[in-house]
Amino acid sequence: MIPRYLVDVDLDGIPHIHTDVIVIGAGIAGLFTALRASETKKVLMITKKSLLDSNTRYSQGGIAAVISDEDSPEFHMQDTLIAGAGLCSPEAVDILVHEGPNGVHDLIRMGTQFDLENGELALTKEGAHSQRRILHAHGDATGAEIVRALSERTKQDPNIEIWDDHFVIDLITQDGECYGALVQKPSGQRVFVRGEATVLCSGGAGQLFRYTTNPDIATGDGIAIAHRAGAQIQDVEFIQFHPTALCYPGAPRFLISEAVRGEGAYLRNIKGERFMERYHPQLELAPRDVVARAIVDEMEACRSTFVYLDITHESEELIKHRFPTIYETCLNFGLDLTTDWIPVAPAAHYMMGGVRTDLYGETNVRRLFACGEVSSTGVHGANRLASNSLSEAIVFGRRIIERIQELPPLKGDIQIRSQSDAPRTEISNQAVVEKRLKLQKVMLRYAGFKRTAKGLQKGYEELARQLSFFDSVMTKREEYEFANLLNVALLTTTAALTREESRGGHYREDFPERDDAQWKKHIVFKRGEARIEEWI
Asked: Residues in the active site (predicted)?
């Protein structure tokens, strides 16, 4: 059993700090929500590294919103529902497509400079979108531009205090209500931060896998601390592997944006053959799970570790103008996007599930909210539509602030003293590094792109052998991160083992067909309950 708290807790023995709103994390969800909250509240932003370290920063393609007169919210909704493979919440998607354009204008008002063409916002198309509705910045550096604009504004806001290099160990709850968080400072001192509302914006869990487009910080912390606090965790079996990450000796798994295929790039196997016509009528612009599976099939058929992405038939001018970051990164490894086919392979990219929320971002734990990739709002279903993630963060960030404004004052004292039953054991640094790498390899092998009952069971058993880690004395960030990864890995493998079908980002070789009759429902976990709840 995973304990309620990772460390022994005595709130009476540590300093208490009070604020109105606690924002945990610093991607687009955290920055945007903090800025909106600061208009009427005092905000404390807590990041385990810095404002500039998040998945948002690495987002290339852009942000999806209905801007063009040729587009409509109905088109955007239809595309999202199709990609989500039957598990999207129609109400959540309806909110996204109708409120997304206002969110984009909020970003512009906050200083984000999107690319223009002839004085109008430039729009491109990405996989599984029927219309051109993707706004971008500096060609392929959309996330970095949004983070730049919002973080500059955040630093100047007198109502926002920023704690860099701080780690949220756990949420503090009593009687189903969140009172704030137990936080470790860079010095190692722990403090209790009490807030009227706590918003998780801590991103995803790409570091569950050996190969990922995510930065090192994406260790599933928010999902794990919310699970330990009694929040519902939904849909974590659905993990999106981005079809096209750079796969080249000495290079990181750098994301090659969906937008490259949106601008006309072909996929070729190592024999040089285009192959997507064998898999889907939308060819290279099919939904991500379809494209990624097709790539894996071709790799297996050709006994290769990659396929090629070919945009050499487009003009050099277009490639350098639209994809300056990708062009430069590839060039650093001796690959020229304008003349070379680029070796690519799928890599873990995005978790569709997370902390289950209502349509205002609130969890089943009162005063605890979740926004961005850490959340499960119902927008993404079993497979996220490209560029909907940034839209989701701003749309639901706005709605979270609406709900926070309505909260009554937090009343009552809280006294928590929690100590482990058995003496805690010491951990060596080397052991944590080895354990993390082993977990990533287990997840990639047994709970990765293609799954079977036998493999998932074996993976779960190997992970469960590490449960004694929760009895350790944890004092460092990497120890908390491993505990959180292990927590999320166990939830993910359990959900994947339970769902006996294939749908979206979950593919079972032993159950290769989608089964709406049995499985058009969500798998929901809640700590302390022995059964998995299924919500239709």
From this structure: 288
- pTM for this one? 0.92
Beta partners for 195? 19
Of the candidates 342, 126, 116, 306, which has an alpha carbon nearest to the alpha carbon of residue 211? 306
**Residue the block writes with tokens 């304990």:** 3
More confident residue, 502 or 528: 502
User: Tokens standing for 87?
Assistant: 């598990």
Beta pairing partners, 274: 268
Q: How many CB atoms lie within 10 A of CB 12?
A: 9
Catalytic residue, from 288, 293, 367, 503: name it.
288
Q: Which helix (H) or strand (E) holds 522?
A: strand 522-525
Which amino acid is it at 486?
L
Query: Which residue reads 């996989």 in tokens?
Result: 127
For residue 83, give Cα distances in angstroms to 86, 125, 382, 434, 505: 8, 15, 8, 37, 10
Residue 337, Ramachandran bin (φ over 0: left; ψ between -120 and 50: alpha; else beta)? alpha
Compute how many other C-beta atoms are within 10 angstroms of the C-beta atom of residue 470: 17
> Nearest 5°: CA angle at 326, between 322 and 328?
105
- Residues 134-187: pLDDT tens digits? 999 987 788 889 989 999 999 999 999 999 999 999 999 999 999 999 999 999
Contacts of 82 (CB under 8 A, 6+ apart): 128, 287
Hunting for tokens 């963060």 — which residue is that?
A: 393
Q: Give CA–CA dist 365/324, Å, rounded.
A: 44
Q: Assess whether pLDDT exceeds 80 at residue 229.
A: yes
Using an 8 Å Cβ cutoff, are 201 and 30 in contact?
yes
Number of H-type helices and E-type strands within the chain: 14, 23
User: Diameter of the chain by CA atoms?
Assistant: 69
- Phi and psi dihedrals of 218, rounded to 5? -80, 75
- Separation CA 383–CA 166 (nearest Å): 32
148 an active-site residue? no
Give CA–CA dist 385/78, Å, rounded. 11
Rg over CA atoms, the chain = 22
pLDDT at 92 over 70: yes
- The rounded distance, in Å, linking the Cα atoms of 23 and 370 is 10
How far is the C-alpha of 170 from the C-alpha of 7, rounded, in Å? 9
- Beta strands in 139-235, from DSSP E residues, in sequence order: 160-163, 167-174, 177-184, 190-200, 233-234
8 Å CB contact between 491 and 227: yes
What the chain holds in terms of domains, given with CATH numbers, is 252-346 (3.90.700.10), 422-523 (1.20.58.100)
In the chain, the percentage of residues whose pLDDT exceeds 70 is: 96
Closest-CA residue to 221 (of 235, 199, 196, 204): 204
Distances (CA, A) of 258 to 255, 270, 291: 9, 20, 11
pLDDT for res 496 = 97
Closest CA to 445 of 455, 457, 432: 455
Residue 489 structure tokens: 């890995």
Nearest-angstrom CA–CA distance, 488 and 440: 12
